[in-house]
């Protein structure tokens, strides 16, 4: 979400209606009252100094010409949910949670042409990241902070702009968009803490994914494993490899081994939503394992590796060549 601020100085009426007459919407934005000359707009007197107008927009819906005009008039402001220059890019909140940052904040900055999140800082405030907060919860908190900061800046915008400072050259990090591949758990490489961070960062957007006997399975509800469960002989009595799945009957969760420990899973999606108990009865129970044709090494969660766009493109080219 971008925030544009345009200063509408001057006696020129704000256009929009036929014949240059202001439309009711623009009349409201410009602070115009009822026209003494009737509906044709004649005799309208525009304020010498109309208020600052704030436009919220998505760049895919906003005309380039309008952006250029606004930038030429007095520049644009962006409310960015991180302490720039840390986490420049489209997904700062997700990367804040994903990397376990303990401090974050909001930056109000001026937009610069062709490059996002590099302009002068107008106002910046920091806040601690609540422990174990999700990206959705953090977004709500930073949204409130950003709104208050924006109002504070707009109350005296000329002074606020004059106090702008350049971003430091040190501490620059980038927050690229999240792809479906990010949601694939790497059981041999990721610790339990890293998996839970991933879940809190993107779980409400893209469910975490893995492989079960060559089928993609989504992990819907992850929970931390209680220390008392970890003393179970099933978990300590024999070596287990990452991805191994054990059903814990007392807590009714699936225990999955990762690089350094265990995570708990309450429900999964495999063709349909299944509770941990449903998954155990259908896929882990001893009667199923005896009748299964799968090798023991397959009866565990394995890392799902999605094809990259480049590889997908090569496959399409190969298919086209075969058709020819």
UniProtKB/TrEMBL annotation:
Residues 1-26 are annotated as: Disordered. It is an enzyme of class 2 (transferase). It catalyses: L-methionyl-tRNA(fMet) + (6R)-10-formyltetrahydrofolate = N-formyl-L-methionyl-tRNA(fMet) + (6S)-5,6,7,8-tetrahydrofolate + H(+). Its EC number is 2.1.2.9. Residues 73-154 form the Formyl transferase N-terminal domain. Residues 177-283 form the Formyl transferase C-terminal domain. Gene3D superfamilies: 3.40.50.12230. Its main location: mitochondrion. One of its GO terms (molecular function) is methionyl-tRNA formyltransferase activity. This is Methionyl-tRNA formyltransferase, mitochondrial. It comes from Vulpes vulpes. The gene is MTFMT.
């Amino acid at each position: 979400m971008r925030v544009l601020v345009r200063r509408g100085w001057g006696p020129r009426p704000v256009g929009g209606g036929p014949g240059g007459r202001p439309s009711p919407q623009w009349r409201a934005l410009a602070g115009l009252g009822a026209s003494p000359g009737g509906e044709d707009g004649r005799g309208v007197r525009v304020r010498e100094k109309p208020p600052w107008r704030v436009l919220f927009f998505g760049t895919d819906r906003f005309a380039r010409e309008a952006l250029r005009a606004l930038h030429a008039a007095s520049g644009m402001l962006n409310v960015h949910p991180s302490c720039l220059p840390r986490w420049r890019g489209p997904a700062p909140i997700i990367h804040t949670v994903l990397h376990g940052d303990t401090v974050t904040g909001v930056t109000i900055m001026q937009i610069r042409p062709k490059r996002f999140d590099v302009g002068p800082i107008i106002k910046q405030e920091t806040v601690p990241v609540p422990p174990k907060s999700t990206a959705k919860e953090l977004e709500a908190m930073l949204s409130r902070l950003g709104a208050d900061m924006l109002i504070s800046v707009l109350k005296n915008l000329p002074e606020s702009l004059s106090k702008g400072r350049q971003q430091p050259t040190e501490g620059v990090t980038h927050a690229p968009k999240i792809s479906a591949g990010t949601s694939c758990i790497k059981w041999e490489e990721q610790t339990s803490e890293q998996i839970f961070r991933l879940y809190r960062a993107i779980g409400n957007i893209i469910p975490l994914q893995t492989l079960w006997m060559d089928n993609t399975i989504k992990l819907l509800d992850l929970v931390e494993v209680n220390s008392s469960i970890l003393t179970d002989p099933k978990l300590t009595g024999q070596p287990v490899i990452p991805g191994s799945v054990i059903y814990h009957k007392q807590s009714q969760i699936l225990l999955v081994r990762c690089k350094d420990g265990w995570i708990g899973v309450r429900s999964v999606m495999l063709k349909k939503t299944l509770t941990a108990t449903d998954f155990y009865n259908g896929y882990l129970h001893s009667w199923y394992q005896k009748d299964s044709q799968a090798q023991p090494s397959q009866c565990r969660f394995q890392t799902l590796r999605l094809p990259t766009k480049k590889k997908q493109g090569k496959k399409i080219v190969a298919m086209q060549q075969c058709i020819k």
